Amino acid sequence: MTAAATGTAAARPQRAAPCPPPCGLDGLSVRIGRRSVLHDVTLTLYPGSVTVVSGGDGSGKTTLLRTLAGVQRPCGGRVRRPPRERVGVVAAGGGVYADLTVGENLRFAAAAYGLGGGAREARAAALLAAAGLAGARDRLAGRLSGGMRQKLALVLALLHRPDLLVLDEPTTGVDPVSRAELWRLL
Prior knowledge:
alpha+beta; Rossmann fold; three-stranded antiparallel β-sheet; 6 helices; disordered N terminus
């Protein structure tokens, strides 16, 4: 007997949310001045994955990450990534305005991403609490410890729930306890 014959409705199978396409680089080349920094680099980044780019000083890691984030223009190849407004970045050395308070940094980042109202405040409060910075909203970012500044940089990068998060040496110069807290925040 079918569902129609018994008068009961047949349940439709639930469709999974579409998986975003992978990000990456296809045959990427970057020149800075006359110097070839990256040549024919191919890299695929899958949704939900963590990828580490490793290499010696001057090997092009930062250039690769800047290109992936949409900051550096390639001279060849293709970059596959979400639109810039869906990318979060923690640059080497931070990305925090030292002359603004923690709260002002948050408002500035939220405005840049078009976030407003209660949703912004709730998200900011949750991230600050997770980072151990809830009591630091009124402190100047320049007066935070190195680890606290890096945690703030990560909070700013996560504020808009990016589809792609690019971290360039996020724990350099950070003490072991703060380093563990940064990775826990992710």
